[in-house]
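#dry-run=false #mode=assembly
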Amino acid sequence: MTQPLLKIRGLKIEGRSDETWTPIINGIDLDLNRGDVLGLIGESGAGKSTLGLAAMGFTRDGCRISAGSVEFDGIELVNASAAVKRALLGKRIAYVAQSAAASFNPAHRLIDQHTEGPVQHGVMSRAESEADGIELYRKLRLPNADDIGFRYPHQVSGGQLQRAMTAMAMSCRPDLIIFDEPTTALDVTTQIEVLAAIRDIVQQFDTAAVYITHDLAVVAQMADRIKVLLQGDEVEEADTRTMLSAPTEEYTKSLWAVRRFQRPAKPAIPADATPVVSVRGITAAYAATTVLHDISFDMYAGRTVAVVGESGSGKSTVARCITGLLPPKSGAIEFMGTALPADYRKRSKDQLRQIQMIYQMADTALNPRKTIGQIIGRPVEFYLGLKGAKRRARVEDLLNLIELEPKIYFDRLPSELSGGQKQRIGIARALAAEPQFIICDEVTSALDQLVAEGILKLLARLQDELGLTYMVITHDLATVRAIADEMVVMKDGRVVEQGGKEQMFAPPHHPYTDLLLSSVPEMDPDWLTCLLEERGVDNIGDAAVGKM
Amino acid sequence: MTMLVWIVGCVAALIGAGWVFRFIGRLTGGTVFRDMEIATAFGYMLALASVGLGVWLFFFVEAAVFFRWAVQGFIGFAIAAFLFRLLGRHLGPNSTRRLFRQMPLTASFGIMIVLIYAILAIFAGAIAPHGQEEVFAQVNLLPGGNVAMGGDPAFPLGTDQIGRDLLSRLIYGAQNTVGIAFATTVIAFLLGGTLGFLAATLGGWLDQLLSRMVDVLMAIPSLIFALLLMTIASAWAGSQQQLLTVYMILIIAVIDSTRVYRLARAVGGNIVVMDYIEAAKLRGEGLLYLIFKEILPNAMAPLLAEFGLRFCFVFLTIASLSFLGVGIQPPLADWGTMVRDLSQFINFAAFSPLTAALPLMAAGAIALLTVAVNFVVDWMLQKSSGLKE
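#status=ok
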């Protein structure tokens, strides 16, 4: 047996908070052979990114390696001198960050940033590196490989940037690449392209990789082995196929089970029912650019309509039209059969109360300077006129409804809550107005899978108890499958297809719906390979869109 | 030319010393010295040399009187601040004790100085030994109260050219200068802050109109502008001195509110795009609720920091105007005027440091307050940004 490329033994990392050192990683062992891909999965806070960085002998500010060793190809990286690390990083170990858009320097062209590493390390001359970069862009199937490098980061799309970053990591032909959630910020259809590109190039150059993600289906496609982390501890490690088919630990099983949550189907809509909210022929524009073209659909009481599409498809703009933030150029929004004023400023207090919204980023949706009691109490007082003890009692009822203990959370600030708890507060604030209709704008996309499942279950329960109507905006089809009754597929500001969920998930599909549905990663390690074969390897995604 | 040679020589010597320092350090085998850049080692050597120079000046150079005073003052204030913090940690309600426990020394120094100034300003009438307009027979007495040196125990800080007690005038100066500066800053903030938030929230033509007006005001150098307006105001006020003071407060407030407006608009602009503002708008909240309940609490930290800085600037503007003769009018005591009146004594510094100290006392009072306010503001900023994380 040869020496593993990366050997981590008993690694402990601590982070400094409130004048004390708290453990982030408690003693983890890791072995990675040349050419192997190891998947690291876990929820946020599990320490996967910290472990990934530690594999380069690096810790974030305020963290320290307190024990253990990190050996890369026989070289000890813990306490290595700056000169030793400088010679390794970039040349033999490379790193691909989650947000390529934030990691590229916006003031320099892609190729300038690409060639920096090889030239610095003396691997290639500038001209050689430039030619090599173009070759790598071609291998990663970037469009216009010859001149894409001469663009600035903002002139390139997110998925292309992520591939350019992978090319940059490859520029010195490293032995090891750390991928830190490289596709998390991308749409499903774009994600496929990046995944396929990364997998190919890693295989081609026989590079070892550590692939960090929270998405099980993604890791199943990429990794040879999977290691599951929970709060700085290793839960289990196994071969990808073994791990998927026979996880041994309870925690791993619960992760696997998340994707199976699904609500029972509801009875059909009575023929004479009035829709709660009806979107009638909406055309809307930002300045001169028309972003919505003649959108129409209905939403009935006690049901959930999912609006699905890639970013830029106009699904959030529909929500802005319904709430009145963006008055449409033509068409109308009807609430219980009567048309609402287009501008929210012209709507009555009661009309405003009936339509509430839950936001994607709970961080920016809750005022950081107000306590939970104030945040939820304000709509209670504003709409229902409750004051003092009555108001407090109502807020406590609402907190109980969203399964948070009122005594503990009433006086807390949003910054003292976890992401899932913040999202629950957002739900409570919407409920405080006692609305009939709630818009959920990507409410779970910023959350871990287990937490997201909790939120979805809560929404489903509230719907059953209070008879609410939801419009769920999402790009995640797992969410649709979990809670939606009807589905509206949007692309480029037009409704491509709409109908009941069962009908939509069953073929035949509209080609775009088909592309969306087939792009959702499945927990089968062969899924990506099969899909690529089906679509034809070249220009995946682009080709499928082109056919339409 | 020789100067240049000296500087180059010193830098070279320090770099050399730094290299030796690092080399010796490396013999001990620690990681700190192994990864140390030569520039860092140079920095250590520079600091060491500066401290050495200070010690040499303090103990061996007879002529460096002012340097010695500064060092003594620095150490004195540091000890006072330490004792003040110790006091705060053991007295008073629990909440202030907790506050003092986490306070850096600079902040406790700042709070102490601000408190002292506030007490002096409020109780000036009771604390000052003489009236601010009282004229005595002894003119140009030296500070120190030592008869042999040309002082008088009745006037510990001496008297000015027409025989007014300087200590009393310094104390009354706190009341006039600081009081007026505080009032001016508050008005500037009310005006600039409200308009800035309005512009950020409403946008559109109102934002354009207000911003262009502010641009016009900002395009004129502020001190020249203030001087110009003060000249007009003094014609309007005629012989009514109080009216002129009111005019001055308004003029400086309007000029400084333009800077506050810019800041409030920029900070507000970042806050109004947040989802919680959208949620409040969709709830149907009014403009006043949006500005004062949703935006203001989030803009508090930068605004407070600006308040501290702006206070210092206003204070310096008033002192400058008084120095130029159009600010606070005699016989009211004012630090700016005092600096101007006594400024010629600076020329005697080589012969009698005590004489030269006369104008420096008022200037020192200004400097001390400016530094203290900035320390307090720094601390507040640090605290509020720390809370966010």
